[in-house]
Every structure is written in structure tokens, then in C-alpha cells.
Amino acid sequence: YQRRVHGLKERKAELQAEKEYIAQQANLSKRPACPPGTRLMLDDEKEETIQRLEIKKRECVEALNRLPMRVDTLSVQNRRNQLESEITEIESNIKKFSTKRDVYIPI
Q1: Are 105 and 49 in contact (CB under 8 A)?
Q2: Ranked by mean pLDDT, which of 20-24, 34-38, 49-53, 94-98 comes out on top?
Q3: What is the distance between the alpha carbons of residues 64 and 79, in angstroms, rounded to a whole number?
Q4: Which of the residue ranges 34-43, 55-64, 94-103 has the most confident prediction, judged by mean pLDDT?
Q5: How far is it between the farthest Cα atoms of the chain?
Q6: How far is CA 30 from each of CA 15, 20, 47, 65, rounded to the nearest angstrom?
Q7: What does the alpha-carbon distance between residue 91 and residue 73 come to, in Å, rounded to a whole number?
Q8: Beta carbons of 26 and 70 less than 8 angstroms apart
Q9: What is the mean pLDDT of the chain?
Q10: Looking at the DSSP assignment, which residues form a beta bridge with residue 96?
Q11: CA-CA distances (angstroms) from residue 20 to 7, 14, 23?
């Protein structure tokens, strides 16, 4: 009698593991395939990209702070506008890479 109970417990564990595997495979198949000509960006690559973007943002802010407070010339105004737009773009890119969503990059 004990062998039967033990055998039933093993069988139940096998069935549970199989159900979990099937559910996992179903979740993977629901995920959309990569668009042609792209690949999925790994989490490590995302973190590295975020770090590089933050460094670039810091450099732009430092350059913006080095500009004169009074905007007398057209070139200073243009440089200030360029740096501000770069900072805005970098911040939006950081937000894109910080999400949990998948990021696809061209091959």
C-alpha cells in the first residue's frame, strides 16, 4: 500500500511539473516575435546604455552650466538651445530604456 501512495505522489509531482512547463511555453509563445532585421536587447545592454546616456547627460549639463549667464550673442543662444534639446532627448531615451518592455535594435 505504501508503494502505491509513494508512486501516486511522484506521479502528481510529475504532472504538476508538466503543467508548469506547458504554462511557461504558452506564455513564451504569446510574446510577439522580433520584427525582421532586429534583435531583442538584453537587460545588461539596456543597463550599459542607460549608464552611457547618464554620462552624456551629465556632460551636456556641465557644458550648459559653463555658458555665460547673459545671452548676448546668437551663437551662445544657439548653443544653449542645442544643449537643452540634447538633454531633453537623452532624458526621453533614458525613460525608454528604463521600462520593462522589450527593446528591439537593428542587426
Answers
A1: no
A2: 49-53
A3: 8
A4: 55-64
A5: 95
A6: 23, 16, 26, 48
A7: 27
A8: no
A9: 84
A10: none
A11: 20, 10, 5
Going by C-alpha positions, the residue among 33, 36, 88 that lies closest to residue 60 is 88
- Residue that is written with C-alpha cell 542587426 in the block: 107
pLDDT in tens, 44-64: 888 999 999 999 999 999 999
Please enumerate in sequence order all residues whose Cβ is within 8 A of that of 20, keeping only pairs 6 or more positions apart, or say none.
none
**Which of 33, 37, 32, 34 minimizes the C-alpha distance to 107?**
37
In three-state secondary structure terms, 105 is strand
Residue 104 in 3-state DSSP?
A: strand
For every residue of 38-53, DSSP letters joined together read EEEPPHHHHHHHHHHH
Q: What are phi and psi of 40, to 5 degrees?
A: -75, 135
